[in-house]
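To whoever is on call:

I kicked off a structure prediction for a single chain this morning and the downstream step that reads the tokens threw a length-mismatch warning. I double-checked the sequence; it's 198 residues and nothing unusual in it as far as I can see. Pasting both halves so you can look.
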Amino acid sequence: MNKLYAEACDRNKAPILAVIELLFEDCTSVLEIGSGTGQHAVFFAEKMPHLIWHTSDVKENHADIKAWIQDAKLSNLQGPLMLDVTQTEWPEVKVDAVFSANTAHIMNWDAVEKLFAGAGRLLPEGGKFVLYGPFNYQNQYTSDSNANFDLWLKAKDPQSGIRNFEDIDNLAKSAGMIFRQDYEMPANNRILYWQKVK
């Protein structure tokens, strides 16, 4: 079956796994928001068989996710669920972790706000929210390549762009989550980890 392939997923999947396999070692079920091609989901579900990995995305990406899932034949890989973060009702799924990669910078700010609010509603106390991608700190780029990437994003969609850590951390606090860890990743990316506390 023909499947959409993203080269970036192959480049970053091992470094991401090295972090999340430790973060998720005591978790049982993860919702991935914005599963894209489905490549990450297949790789992570295979490498972390103790987890039920729920894929989700907007409808137009479901065919590719289904193709990857069907070829993988993994019993712990589920979905894809229909999820646009701006929709009023999110799918009813019982998870103790939420993961999303390379999504916040391609969403508009309203969607980013709803991403954090939705993750906060979904997670139980102690649940983990893990976000991968490029981020700014105190409104400063961490590299020239991120500055150029941000210009490219805004040229395509003025509502998108690399998000400022302090701004999204405020969203997390409003959603009942506290910041736990910031992991440096290759290619000027980060993994940010929050935990639901109330």
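Update from on-call: the warning came from a stale cache, not from the record. Cleared it. Sanity check on the structure: The longest helix spans residues 7-23.
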